[in-house]
Amino acid sequence: MALNFKVGLVGLLDMLKFANLSKDREKVIAAAPAKEITADYPVNNFAKAMHPDFQPLVIDEIIDHAAAGAKTFIFKRADGKPASYFRAGQYISLKLPIGESFVTRPYSISSSPKWALDGKVAVTVKANPGGFAADWMLDSFKVGDEVKGSEGLGAFYYQKYRDADHVVALAGGSGITPFLSMAYAIRDGIEDFRLTILFGSRTEEAILFREEFDKIMSETDKVKVIHVLSDEKKKGFENGFITADLIRKYAGDEPYSVFICGPEAMYRFIGKEVEKLGLEKKFIRSEFLGATKTVWEQPGYPQEAKDKVFKLTVKQGPNEYVCDCLANEPILVAIERAGIKAPSKCRSGDCGWCRSRVTSGEVFIPEETDGRRWADKQCGEIHPCTSFALSDITITVPGEYY
Amino acid sequence: MAAKYDVVVVGAGNAGLSAAVKCAVEGKKTLLIDQHNLPGGCASSFRRGRFEFDPSVHEICDFGPEDNKGHVRLLMERNGVNVDWITVPECYRCISTYSDGTPMDVTMPCGREEFIAAMEKYVPGSRAPMEKFFDLLLEIRAAKVYMNDGTPNDPKYMQKHFPNTLRSCGYNSLRVLQALRMPQKAIDILGVYWPYLGIPLDEINFFHFGNMIDMYVIRQAVIPHHTSHEISMTFMNRFYELGGEAWFNCRAEKFLFDGDKICGVRTSLGDVECEQVLANINPDIIDAKMIPKELVPERDKKLSAARNKKFSTKFCMIYMALNRPVEEIGIKDYCIFFAETADSRKEFEYMKSIDNGYNILISYNTLIPDFSPEGTCVISFTKLFSESEDWAKLTPEEYYKVKDKMIAKCIDDVKKNLGIDITPYIEEVEVATPMTFARYLGTPDGTPYGFELNDWDGIIARMMDVQADFTIKGLRHIGAGSFMADGYSSTWINGDLCAMMACADLEEGGKK
Q1: In this complex, which of A35, A162, A375 lies closest to B428 when CB atoms are compared?
Q2: For chain B, is the Cβ count within 10 Å smaller at the N or the C terminus?
Q3: Residue B298's closest chain A neighbor by CA?
Q4: Contact assignment for B233 to A11 by CB distance below 8 Å
Q5: Is A35 inside any structural domain?
């Protein structure tokens, strides 16, 4: 078919129009004023306020929960701005300069998102054996101290199109904190769902936030807390551990989601109980486990590597560092010990912020905390927070914004 | 002592990746930096639970089959970047309303004959103008090859060999389609892809529009098997293999000058020296924040003022993992457009509002059964916005509510248009707003695109002007803000071309 047509009134001018595209453009540019160029965009400013490189925080108040061996640190933004808004249940990653090291620790936020608007955010830290960062914070933090923290992070929050209208929360010890934030959010009208918390404590005296929850329950009937005491038998309390039967007892007949947060031992026990409920995967959500403290017990771990000390070479931008790396600890810990400001947030293999490239050497990555992308698994990219050295290693880590 | 490189590529998005690989292929000592902790920009992935999501890709055009290789395929082959591609067998399904108000539900296949036959079925009498249209596209393709071959364009040669290209390509697409006597309903169907160009048919240059239809319909689209992160990592692996160096979580703060020529980059990980910079950053941001005020060229100020911060489309993406196989859910097509109207000008106006009804559904498992764990599937929705004002007005408290509203709209769209209720099956759901894109890309208003392709600022005009637009010695803009504008394919090609220019400058400098 012959192709011959014209678009404009006079076909010949079309050619000219095409040839003049550049001239016409130059004319428009020449006619514009030579104004100073600015690049200030409201959408970007919003994003920066929600997700800053870090939030400068200052300790405003410390609440001692002596019987539970824990303290709540209430931070205020040091620059007077609102704190980054977050979803109840999310965690904050604190950047802690301990000795020569720059370490991070993730803590679930225990305050209401509403507080963030006034520049406040709270976390609760519990002493734990061998927990050197927790002990450092409990011993040394005082009102007025400054510390850097991330924005609220993670996907451990209520999402109405994903979760059931009724959430049965299973908490142990300081694992209660995200649920306290959720309870506040419900009371404050920020979230709207029914929250039943089965809260495991050793004794009545050791219960965290009892008064706070009692108060919330007097203000809203959407939140209900059932205390489960493992070391005491008392009237008005459930006794023993959180079991499948106990969950069924309080869940009722309507569909429900199970949210789990607690220490590793509780998590492993409860995980088996929850399995008995036969819920679909989408109705079971748990906060991060953290890196395993006994990697040699993981399936597939080559036992000959256990207890060894390897040489770790770390490249970051133009710099190179060499340090020791204990086989029993995540590679991230060795990097932090060496005084390198490396990125990390969740420390559970999930968020990928510490994503780094291994250029030589062998690593072991426990399956249960391998949150890497498909292509990263093929390409030697690892998350050092849950990767363990099996030989001398050379690794390239990203920078971190301090 | 500052580290020294031939080329520093700033921004490891699509253009930065292809530019970095090209420089390394040419044997240049190349440093690639990015402010985020992984490469790709939009071409990335993220994990939620047991799922991995692609943040942005719908279909990648200009790849082409073995016997009709597109620019992207040629580029990848030439630079040794071998991705596991999956071919998209059908162009699109579109559920909308024709310009005359009657309902539209069309499914358009790939391939010239198949496409024309389907069009004839939906719009009887469209065959003749459709044949003409595709003939014209063939000529435009040849013209594009001629114009891109790096030699000066001879107007006489072009008049002789590409007369219809010259006749049509000074005009907007609507006008050319009407001149071809295309029935309005056929224009409505042909125009479905217009949002990928960010501007309605009555404004988008026909060269650009025609070229896009050619690439999608004739050459067919492809998608990566394992999300766009697979593509980006394939580029990265090739780059490392060639001796390239990359620093992530590394922000370029300032460009360093020796007189009026760039001689280095101040980064958050230290200063680096270099001969050439390829900057995958919006030109406005460079001029406003990264170079000394007195060195901002007069022409940049005028060009920026003429563009007047008219940035192209802003996106909201809604990602869902469903805990049933896609067959059981009942979604059959890979790509479905839900538009309020096929009238692109009207829809463009609607898109100013955060509440507009436009949506694109992508269903990955229809093409890639193992895209997600067995018994599950992943889908995504893309909502478009021509303005960002509604988003910018939100308070933090409203922000999460708006995210929920977007999810609700997607659920409703599937219910209304396909008669399927996906609500009970949502195992994971995530929403990326213009703010999310701003967070990860740092682009103005979070647009993954560049400046609007206005009538005066179309791609051909920009290409003709390319030397004039690179105003700063030693610096070239690459990516969506550069002359080939947005999209995976365009930015890969743009990065590659600009790398070639930078390498040529280096060769020349070496001789002196």
Answers
A1: A162
A2: C
A3: A34
A4: no
A5: no
pLDDT per residue as tens digits for the range B52-84: 999 999 999 999 999 989 999 999 999 999 999
Boundaries of CATH 3.50.50.60 in chain B?
Answer: 3-66+72-82+226-309+449-511
**Is residue A172 helix, strand or coil?**
strand
The dotted CATH code for B3-66+72-82+226-309+449-511 is 3.50.50.60
CA torsion, ordered A145, A147, A151, A154, to nearest 10 deg:
-110
From B452's Cα to the closest Cα of chain A, the distance in A is 14
CATH architecture of B313-441: Alpha-Beta Complex (3.90)
- Residues of chain B neighbouring A36 (CB-CB closer than 8 A): 293, 296, 301
3-state DSSP helix/strand/coil % of chain A, to nearest 5? 30, 30, 40
- Please say whether the beta carbons of B492 and B81 come within 8 A: no
Domain containing A60 equals 50-149
Q: Say which residue the tokens 């905390």 belong to.
A: A369
Distance from CA of A376 to the nearest CA of B (A): 7
pTM above 0.90, yes or no: yes
Domain count within chain A: 3
Q: Distance between CA A140 and CA B395 in Å, rounded?
A: 37
Mutate to test the interface with A, among B82, B116, B233 (most CBs of A within 10 A): B233
Q: Which amino acid is at A126?
A: K
Q: In A, which residues are within 8 Å of B288 by CB distance?
A: 37-40
A24-78 pLDDT, tens per residue? 999 999 999 999 999 999 999 999 999 999 999 999 999 999 999 999 999 999 9
